[in-house]
Amino acid sequence: MRSEDKTAVLLIRESPGRAPDPSRMRELFGLAQAAGYRVLAEISQRRSRDHLFQIGRGKIEEAISYHPHRLIFYNPLSPGQVYNIRSQFGVAVLDRFNLILEIFSSRASTREAKLQVELARLSYDAPQVRNALALKKRGEQPGFRGAGAYEESMYHDIRGRMAKIRAELAAREDKGENRRQRRREQGFDLVALAGYTNAGKSTLLNSLTGSAVKAQDQPFTTLSPTTRALEVLGRRVLLTDTVGFIDDLPHFLIKAFRSTLSEISEADLVLLVADISDPIELLRRKLIASHKALWDCDVTSPIVTVLNKSDRLDEREAAMKVEMVGDLAPCPVLASAATGQGLGTLEECLSQRLEPLPEHEIRLPYTSLGLSQLSRLYQSTDLVAVRYEEELIVRLRGRKEALARAGLYKALLE
Amino acid sequence: MDISGRHEAEGRYEMVCAAVSARISPSFLERIDSVRLIRRQAGSLDINLISDIIIEACTGLTGIIIAESGDLYNLEVWRVKSILGRDFKYPQTLAERTAVQLAHHISLAGHRLIRHGIDNGKESGKERVME
Known about the structure:
The structure holds two protein chains of two kinds. Chain A is about 45% helix and about 20% strand. Chain A is α/β, with parallel strands linked by helices. Chain B starts with a strand and ends with a helix.
């Protein structure tokens, strides 16, 4: 099916006890478009959960009258609800989580991303398959109509495949850790760009580093981490763009993307990007979702909040919003990746918040070996002074990892 | 704050509530002012009992009460506020989650001490005698 052929009707059930939130439908619309669906209609209903169809039967009939290829629900659907809607109305259905997985699987370009998406899909499927098998066994009949060993093995196959993927991802995570270690040895500070999806992280990466990473005004453009180098007031920084966060995601999806998210948890500093042009309730909701995701990633490094797209607001409005998110983002940096406004302030803030490099004094022999070590230090550390005496006395600022790489850590300790 | 022991053991609920009074910024716990532990035994469990324990644990402590939604039966914030009669929120920032996690560790340790501590003490006493 070509993407222009894919049509969908969006449905959302809102709890009667809560105020209606139109931003959820907007988010679902954005996700559906990102997955290549043409949205025919948006239907919402305030009611308690219908155990058969999630939403009222009349609303599903209304949705079907548009003749869509799929019904896309914001609310999670149980296997029973999917079965009921398919069998009674003859239409394919998808919930928000599966829609996100569909986007991920269409955009996954690296081996790692493909494995992560497959793991997430299997983590979602495994309990459902077990549930379906249990239901089948409940009404088991002798002979060919029973659930045999073949069906029983299906669940075990899924578990086996998940174990294999986890092992491969763990190996890749180790590689990532080694890569980060090497980068620190080369004197780089690692900074990660994190934030809600479509906040402008890739555009900010492009603006700060002058690169041309793919950046679009749609959710989940970036799936695999992308790293670019940058020099911030004398500090050499590697800036990594990561996959965006989204609200109400199941925990296992975050676990499946652990190797990608480790770029955030292992960074020296996290730039939490949010879109200040969002309405204040939505901005707060996205910041809270981002904090929750950072908590799930075990982030312990300092966080600098960047309120992006500030060019879309006037100064007074921006100041008011900054005050209203003060409890979630103290002293945020207002910036616009598109116009370059506030990027200088952001760089200053980055250099202030990065841990200051410790100053060391080391002695090197005044030989060709000593001079080659000195030249290596020029590349990976910030040399303060070099005195050429009987020995080379070098005062420098740099990471211990960089000294260790130059084989000088012992000299330092002595 | 956090409550441990909200499961039935030998027909009773042996609960320990930990209230941590802390000053926080969005990313970090800046300072812990005090920690308070309240023990409560009950034959059954409901929101009134939970709210009583929370109010008792937080008496005299100023500021906003923060607890996991599961501790308050996932009630909406406005309902919890009206039941407690205090300002209340579920954890939102990293620091708020850290504070609740800290309270959880403290209440869990208190609960384990009450449930098993005496037995463990006897065992360690025996070991010392044997040595």
